Amino acid sequence: MNIKLLIDGGDMKPGPAIAQQLGPIGINMGQVISKVNEATKEFKGMKVPVNLDIDEKTKDFTVETSSPPTSELIKKELKLEKGTSDHTNIKVGNASIEDVIKITKIKYSNMLEKDFKTAVKSILGTCASVGILVENQEPNELIHKIDSGRFKQEINNKSTETESEKRKRLDNHFAKIKEEQDAKIEAEKKAAEEAAEAAAEAGTETTEATQAPEGAETKPKEAEEEKK
Hints:
By secondary structure, the chain is mostly helical.
């Protein structure tokens, strides 16, 4: 019997959903949690797919883990809580090519791509959808440069260590990008608020203009009575 779970790496806990799946089998839940947490501890802070292969007669089981989704690995590598909902306009991080290669090495055995350089380009595609710059550039632009030989040495050597000075330059570049983004968002927010206020004022003036002045209907009647 196979049971598929998606758990927090190294932090699986007992709960109603887990009990509902494992309870009817009569398997020791404490042992399952312990083994799953041990198998996924290197992915702490990420969602990890887990498959439990259970022998219903003996209650023995094996734990098989898949590497977390690429987006989760990217966020962990850059210490991000979440990606962006607008990857075209809002960037949330700036990775090095070594970061991308490191993630590629983790995912490679589960990827369809059999050529490592092609796999690197696939990871770059995910970086673009998450809102991550790579080497200060849009990931999709970098894909074309890799086809032209850029980062050939790093990819061939499968380099995964980013020099501290390089990391500092990447961080400083992104700090400027974020400052510009925040200023733009604040300006757009202010403009929207001013437009809403202007629309509200215009609506109020229109309403007042269409309302008849107090006593407007009674004056003609009073005039007619005076004539009589």
